[in-house]
Amino acid sequence: MSSNNNNNDSVISQEIKDKLYETATLAKDTAYTPYSKFRVGAALLSEDGTIFKGCNVENASYGAAICAERTAYVKAVSEGHKNFKALVVTSDHEEFISPCGICRQFISEFGPAKLPVYLVNVKGETLSTTIEELLPYTFGIEQGRKYLIQ
Ligand SMILES: [Zn+2]
């Protein structure tokens, strides 16, 4: 995985980024995509250094499908992890594949706003961004606490 841009490269070491990319690639290999054939792999780095793999899992009832990013988050949260340091998303394409809207909302729930999100294409090139850049002006837990919880 080679980095070619911006802001968060100092946050996560190249060694960890390489490990995350390797893990996301392995996750992609387990994607269940009989309908779209569009494989996505994700790797989520927890605060304690644990890395969770996620792949997309499709379903004959299309709406029941889950994305790679949310798979990784659900696995992590169900194991007691709620603080994260980085996310890598990869696919089989030269285009950088970024999280869908539902995943952006899901990711932003856990934060932090500056969470590095590395989009890695099939050539190993990286587009570095953050969840804050992917989902600005998010409706998050702070608004939930303020307006929804009595
Ligand atoms: Zn998604």
Please characterize this protein's 3D structure.
- The chain has 150 residues and is of the alpha/beta class.
- It is built from five helices and six strands, in the order βαββαβαββαα.
- It has helices at 14-28, 68-78, 101-110, 131-134, 141-148, and strands at residues 2-3, 40-46, 51-55, 84-91, 116-120, 125-130.
- Strands 1-6-5-4-2-3 form a six-stranded mixed beta sheet.
- A hairpin with a 4-residue loop joins strand 5 and strand 6.
- The longest helix has 15 residues, at 14-28.
- The radius of gyration is 15 Å and the shape is globular.
- 35% of the residues are buried.
- The protein binds zinc ion.
Beginning-to-end CA distance, first to last residue: 46 Å
Order of helices and strands: EHEEHEHEEHH
The side-by-side strand order for the widest beta sheet comes to 1-6-5-4-2-3
Number of strands: 6
Question: Taking Cα atoms only, what radius of gyration do you get, to the nearest Å?
Answer: 15 Å
Overall mean pLDDT: 92
- Structure annotation, total helices: 5
Structural class designation:
alpha/beta
| Unreliable parts | 3-9
Largest pleated sheet: 6 strands, mixed
Helix content: 25-40%
Characterize the overall form: globular
Bound heterogens, unique:
zinc ion
Measured by DSSP, the beta-strand proportion falls in: 15-25%
